[in-house]
């Protein structure tokens, strides 16, 4: 089965669809990231956050997640997230630190 909404990793085109799924803190974060250029540190950090939350690294072509598509997978991950919006913001900030560290020195912190 071919799903046109499925990619290898979280695609930035999905970001706007996540805007209204949680509270104001989340909404404001998504708004800020949407305004950034694709490839900016903020955009890359948000994608890294979503890759971690969605489990993109363990998704494969015949998995349930892949069959539903990236948009649906990301929306479900955000709606089902057990923490609060501040927790998500904290994880985003950590992802941004990780992206900036990698851009500066090529170091990946696992």
Please describe what this structure looks like.
There is one protein chain. This protein is mainly alpha-helical. The protein has one domain. The chain has helices at 24-35, 41-54, 64-68, 70-80, 85-105. The chain is globular, with a radius of gyration of 14 Å.
What percent of residues are in strands? under 5%
- Principal-axis shape: globular
Q: List the secondary-structure elements in sequence, H or E.
A: HHHHH
Whole-number total of structural domains: 1
Radius of gyration, CA atoms, in whole angstroms: 14 Å
Proportion in helices: 55-70%
Q: In whole angstroms, how far apart are the ends?
A: 34 Å
Number of strands: 0
The unreliable regions are none
What class would the helix/strand composition place it in? Answer: mainly alpha
Q: If you average the pLDDT, what whole number results?
A: 92
Number of helices, counting only DSSP H or I runs of 4 residues or more: 5
The biggest sheet amounts to:
none
Quick recap:
The chain is mainly α. It contains five helices and no strands. It has one domain (12-101).
Topology:
Blueprint: H1 24-35, H2 41-54, H3 64-68, H4 70-80, H5 85-105
Helix pairs in contact: 1-5, 2-5
């Amino acid at each position: 089965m071919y799903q046109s909404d499925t990619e290898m990793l979280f695609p930035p085109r999905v970001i706007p669809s996540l805007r209204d799924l949680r509270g104001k803190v989340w909404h404001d974060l998504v708004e800020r990231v949407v305004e950034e250029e694709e490839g900016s540190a903020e955009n890359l950090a948000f994608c890294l956050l979503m890759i971690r939350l969605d489990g993109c690294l363990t998704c494969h072509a015949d998995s349930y997640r892949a069959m539903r598509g990236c948009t649906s997978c990301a929306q479900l991950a955000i709606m089902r997230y057990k923490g609060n919006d501040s927790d998500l913001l904290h994880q985003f900030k950590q992802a941004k630190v990780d992206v900036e560290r990698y851009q500066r020195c090529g170091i990946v912190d696992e």
